[in-house]
Amino acid sequence: MPPPLRCTSSLPSTCVKQLCRAGQSTRSFSTTPRQDQRITRNRRQLFRWLGSQGQNFLNPLNGSTNYLGAYNAQGQLKRVVEAAAEAERKKKKEEGKANEPANSSASESGESEEAKEFKGEIPPETTRDLTPFPLNKSFVSQPVLSDDLREEIWKRVMQDGKSVRVVSAELGVEMSRVGAVVRLKEIEKEWEQTGRPLAKPYHEAVMSMLPKTPYDPTGRTNAKPHESINDLPVHRKTGTQIFHPTSESRHFTREDAAKVFDERLLPADLRVPHPELAEMHKDYKAGLSQEERQQRQMERDEIAERKRQRAEAKKAKKEAAVKKVDTGRVEFRFTEISVDAAGKDGRGFKGVGWRYGHPHMDRSRGTVKIPTSVE
Amino acid sequence: MTRKRFHGLKRVKIRATWNKYNLFNLSRLKAPRTNFMTYYQQKWSAKSITRAYHGEHIREGQWERMFTPLLNSVIPMDHRYLAEHDGSEQAAGRGSGLEKPMDLNKIAFGRNQVPYMHMTYAPIERRLDTAIFRALFASSVRQARQFVIHGQVKVNGKKIPYPGYLLNPGDMFQVEPDRVLFATGAPKIKVKAQAEKLRYERRISRQSNITRDAALARRAERRRAKEAKELADDTIELAPRQPKSAPIELGDPEVRKLRQKEFLKLIRQIEDRIGNKKVRRTGKRKQELRVLLRRAKANVIFIGRKSLQELDTEMKEITQELLGITEEVESADKAPVKRLKPESEMSDKQKEALKRAIARIRENPADTTKPYATPWRPRPYMSAFAFIPRYLEVNHNICSAVYLRHPVARPGLAEVPTPFPAETQQLAFNWYLRRR
Description:
The complex is a heterodimer.
Chain A: H1 41-51, H2 55-58, H3 78-98, H4 104-109, H5 111-116, E1 144-145, H6 147-159, H7 164-171, H8 175-194, H9 200-209, E2 212-213, E3 231-233, H10 254-261, H11 268-271, H12 275-285, H13 290-320, E4 323-326, E5 331-334
Parallel strand pairs in A: 1-2
Antiparallel strand pairs in A: 4-5
Helix pairs in contact in A: 6-8
Chain B: H1 20-27, H2 39-53, H3 60-66, E1 74-76, H4 79-84, H5 122-125, H6 128-134, H7 141-149, E2 153-155, E3 158-159, E4 171-175, H8 177-184, H9 191-206, H10 210-237, H11 253-275, H12 283-301, H13 308-324, H14 348-363, E5 392-395, E6 400-403, E7 409-410, E8 413-414, H15 422-433
Antiparallel strand pairs in B: 2-3, 2-4, 4-6, 5-6, 7-8
Helix pairs in contact in B: 2-15, 6-7, 10-12, 11-12, 11-13, 12-13
């Protein structure tokens, strides 16, 4: 590619605008020559923009988000302009009903003025107004949990003792997010108790700049849930296009489709995070009574509980096999190992300790020493 | 070779910062014109502009190792659909006339496409420094990186000084709240610097008289030099006069460091008082304050030549004298001060409001020792960049966040924040794909 053109600073310029900025250095002790900051057209444009359209972004908009995508080229909020136009149209319609001959020229000239002087409350944002990057419509600033909703999640899990899965389904929040909210809330409460100062002003400022999902305690209004909780991750094996001939009469289900992609791939029903929701809906569709449905749900819960207990017992057994010696400062953990684990050639990955002729790789050059996980 | 500008106006590169230059560049960013360019040139320029935003501080080789052509995505499933259909309905009726003919007008092309190409730089979002920037704890990725290196960041309660640590789903990271307040708060402005800036901006707006400004600059230079000289002269007379032969016992260096800190705090206090123009002082009072300031400064300058005891007595004397000078704050406009009603006369509503106002002041106090403007307020132009992607759950009260999962794309939405259109991202993706 050809080298980009740059204006050379060595050429003497006759233009007054091009002269160096003769400001004094802010550091009296500095001996380095100042980088000459020219007052270029770009720079002038920058300051003009900062003084006009850019003024909108200097401070947060009261009670609303304030992204680039929400403004038009003139620096007006698009939704305000639209609302003003809508109001104008309505007004005209009413006037038109009252007296047919309306002087159109006068109202047209006043329309742009109207947009500026629109003094209603700012209308709520649409998806268009939530794009921080105007060229990328695929990235939208999605709402975060409001303070009330977070408190409610913490309450339901920690005080009411509900499981994360249930709370997630009730409030329409991902399970991992429910867990994270509780974890963070616990720390916050601990800080409050110990008197460690919270960054309250910062929190309030940030929350005022972000879109939020409010908590509706009545739960009656059909508000949009925070996020979709039943996200099916796209499996790598399903990326291929497969031509699979099968008989017309065959009842070809999702399970069969999964088998075609891979022998061990589970069907979508089992790979979603909340398979129990579909089960419950199946019971409902089957026309079971309330009691029966509850009974079946309880059975399912019991099975899940038994599974969980088994896993826990397994984990406890593994933990019990480790002999622990607590010296007060450190806890030594002794695990039974076998010498034979090193294998015939002494290089088995389960083998421990130094083995002759087999170098440790932890000091070698070129390998990344950054830990890959903490705890 | 001169360093290239990070936020250039001419050679425009969009950066991962909250800078106002960056905002201006974003506002005038246009999709690159790719006609008249070869495919190679298109790919090169796309990679060049996208890499300037996504991990420009990461070496190219390092990024190439991180790059993967496997892009994560999810499809939201409706549990009611899963319960009511087993998937066989997709194939039912094919060829038996039950199938409706395809109507091209009814198909919404691209409406629900998964924007895979926006996920090109997803691996970078896993880095600790980037995640801190995305959680709004730092005003740029480079600042976030600095916080990590300086040991201000913990992952799962453990200090991790590696900005390149790749977060695992479920990892919690915490940043020191004071650093976050510094990074996101409005800068502390010195009055002089502000005046200078104002003057500069005014000059820009009218593109004016260069000679006059040069004269002003020279005058300011002279004044500053004079001040510096005066300070040097002042402190010299306060230097401890001791024969070189008698060495002083320095004592514990830690204690000495602590004393120095105390003196610096004292100096700031005295300077605050001098700077407070709301107080009317006599000339003598002003002189006294200035003498105290000089004494305190001399102590800091000659801290190595004084014993600990001397420092202690000096400290005590200066504080006592400072406390002795009592001052009354008077209102600026001399109008009768608007006093609140005594609490007994207030209504319940007013009492509540008063209580809230007091609480607000208490949790956001004015404190000149902080490196940011107090009471804290968000820095300018922050709101245009304030968004939190869904793969993070952030609690700003404690400046902590949890990395929930890796970013994914879903129909119509991609979770990797990027200012570039899909075409540019696709070209960049192809650039990196080339070498695989």
